[in-house]
Design goal:
Length: about 475
């Protein structure tokens, strides 16, 4: 066992890292939160202009709320959907400033490496007794080492967007400033950069929908603005989420609005489109070459927005003995539940320490958005449950660590690229994938497929909140009592 006199290091002062600090403090454990940004929740601030699809009641952590109430905080309207900026202003900033959290939060502190004292990856020695060592690069310059008894990596994935290239690698010419990643703000701070331009948005998912919707609104106001949207998959209802079947109404409505923009011709869709090369075109434009429905196709646009999701940065963890699924890059116990190849129900049974542990590196956890690896369906509420369970385990409360304390809303859509038989087998025959129709926009109107009735989606079903749609229960350690719909 590592010395208990050392703090528990939390990498990242975002929503989940700050919630981890609250749970650790509540358990009498000493956290040190290392945040790369010069202000807490730097990643959320970067998409602060985006309105969240989950309302306040899903966005706050129970221990954090208890802490905040002790300082006289008033909870926001639970039904309101905050923007990222409001999430910071009304919840995360007060939490970071709380007198018990602030002294334990180090800003401008980027963790660049994690290992065990005097043990590289290969060395057994007394590995499990050795404290963790975190190398921390200060924004002011210099690197120092921090020792910890346990580590929760809550650093998210915002810093490592996926490339737009077809093979998971940057397409030739992709680097060099031709693609804007993350979520630009065409109606606000980035307006001058997008008004009157031809813009190609690449990627599916809610981030892409947000950008496309904002660009379409800009096109109403700024003549010459034209919006195209490239999807890797054939166009079908599933590209636009679960609509009315989504347990989060705002998320379903976003998809429905995005779908309407395509159907009404206000946004031109390219699908299935695989990006092969980017290069400069005359007048500062970008030439995007690829395969459209298997045939070579090229387009010249003024701006390219990459909204193809995010992946975890595992480089700082190279000296740790991680157990990660090779495809999803989540722990093997969690991966089958969130693997978009099997399904994208978006709802995973609540899980915690047992599913997130790395057996060969006890005391180290990846939690929050990064815990999902490359899977796209993370919800903040999931992260809150993860760190509640991990803090309970570190405090020696095995019962609380095992307990499920979360009910998640359904996405209302269940899709995957595996053959239907494989999907159904994985889901115990209960999860129906959608009929993914070929390219024509008209096919969008083909009914979407929902694995769980909308009524079940919002019902309180603590044991199996995902209803009938989930992968089979994975093998868990004998002491891990985690119910699922196996
Ligand atoms: C546009 C958008 C909208 C979203 N809307 C919703 C929504 O409505 N509901 C919902 O539940 N989820 C939503 N999400 C998902 C959301 O990002 C997460 O739920 C939440 O932000 C995850 O919190 P986190 O703490 O795990 O990661 P993050 O919010 O990414 O926080 C990670 C923190 O770690 C810091 N960091 C990164 N690397 C290091 C390092 N090496 N060392 C130190 N610090 C580091 C970052 O600066 C950041 O502050 C949305 C995401 C996006 C992009």
């Amino acid at each position: 066992m590592t010395p208990t006199s050392l703090p528990v290091a939390v990498i990242g002062g975002g929503p989940v890292g700050l919630a981890a600090a609250a749970h650790l403090l509540e358990r009498g454990l000493e956290p040190v939160v290392l945040e790369a940004g010069d202000a807490p929740a730097a990643a959320v601030r970067a998409w602060g202009h985006v309105r969240m699809f989950s309302p306040w009641r899903f966005n706050t952590d129970a221990a954090a709320v208890r802490l905040l109430h002790s300082a006289g905080w008033s909870a926001p309207d639970p039904g309101h959907h905050p923007t990222g900026d409001e999430l910071v202003r009304d919840y995360l900033a007060p939490l970071a400033a709380h007198p018990t959290v602030a002294p334990r939060l180090r800003l401008g502190a980027r963790v660049v490496g994690v290992s065990r004292r005097h043990h590289d990856l290969q060395r057994d020695g007394t590995r499990e007794d050795a404290p963790f060592v975190l190398q921390v690069a200060a924004s002011a310059g210099g690197v120092e080492e921090v020792e910890a008894r346990a580590v929760l990596d809550c650093s998210g994935t915002w810093g490592t967007p996926n490339p737009v290239g077809a093979h998971g690698l940057p397409a030739p010419g992709e680097r060099g400033g031709r693609v804007a990643y993350r979520i630009p703000d065409p109606l606000g701070r980035d307006r001058a950069d997008y008004a009157g331009r031809r813009v190609l948005v690449i990627g599916a998912g809610h981030s892409a929908m947000n950008v496309v919707e904002a660009l379409a609104a800009l096109a109403e106001e700024a003549p010459g603005t034209a919006v195209a949207w490239a999807f890797r998959r054939p166009l079908a209802a599933a590209n636009f989420g679960g609509g009315r079947d989504d347990g989060l109404a705002a998320r379903g409505a976003l998809g429905a609005r995005a779908r309407a923009l395509v159907e009404e011709g206000r946004v031109r869709a390219f699908a299935p489109f695989l990006v092969r090369r980017l290069s400069d075109a005359p007048d500062g434009a970008v030439r995007v070459e690829g395969l459209l429905d298997g045939r070579p196709h090229a387009a010249e646009v003024d701006r390219v927005v990459g909204a193809t999701g995010f992946r975890p940065d595992l480089a700082p963890l190279a000296e740790l003995r991680l157990s990660l699924d090779p495809a999803v890059q989540a722990t093997p116990a969690l991966a089958p539940l969130i693997d978009p190849n099997l399904h994208s129900c978006g709802t995973v049974r609540p899980h915690g320490e047992a599913e997130l542990r790395h057996p060969a590196e006890p005391g180290f956890y990846i939690a929050g958005m990064k815990a999902y690896g490359r899977a796209p369906t993370f919800l903040m509420a999931t992260g809150h449950e993860q760190v509640r369970s991990i803090a309970a385990h570190l405090a020696g409360d095995a019962d609380a660590a095992r307990r499920v304390e979360l009910v998640l809303p359904e996405t209302g859509v269940c899709s995957g690229s595996k053959p239907k038989a494989a999907v159904e087998a994985a889901a115990g025959g209960a999860c129906r994938g959608p009929a993914v129709e070929p390219a024509a926009v008209a096919a969008v109107v083909a009914g979407s497929s929902c694995c769980t009735p909308a009524s079940a989606a919002t019902a309180a079903v603590p044991a199996t909140p995902q209803g009938t749609c989930c992968a089979p229960k994975v093998e868990l350690p004998a002491d891990a009592d985690a119910p699922c719909c196996a």
